[in-house]
Design a protein that fits this description.
Elements lengths: L11 H8 L4 H6 L2 H14 L6 E7 L4 H4 L4 H11 L10 E7 L4 E6 L1 H4 L4 H16 L3 H19 L15 E3 L1
Helix pairs in contact: 3-8, 7-8
Amino acid sequence: MQKVSNSSSKSLTRLLRHTFCMPILFNRWLNKDVKAELTAKIAQAEKGHNGEIVLVIENHLPLNQAYHIGCRERAIRVFSHYKVWDTEHNTGILIYLNLRERNLQIIADRGINQKVSPDTWQNLCQETLVYFKKQEMQTGLITLIDAASQILKTHYPSADPQGNELDNTVIVLK
């Protein structure tokens, strides 16, 4: 589901794709129970380390942005908007999924990025996309959340099993 592109070139094709996006993509798998399970998974995955995991799922790029930016740029804006950077150890991780673009991005704050290479995040995205291609979106996201948690436990372990600086609720942008 990832078309990794750091290009911020203007794209009429992208704009049209998002203009005619159907919200039905959400209804196929992202129901109330799945959101609850993913939220619970994030809460459980954040125990034992000083990091935060935020999951944002978006149906399509906002139309006022779709012509000018791609999913990477959108993920960076979402990272900032939801203040994923606002953690004591700068260890916030955003998992951003854009359904229309079939794009998955991981944006990590500077604290964790100092210890983890961009290739690691890229590989996690690629591994998750394998699940997505099999229409196993929920399983892919759960596996990705677990992997991000393991990375945080390796580099920022914590004796406080309950530490939580950001909300664990899955954010759904339509």
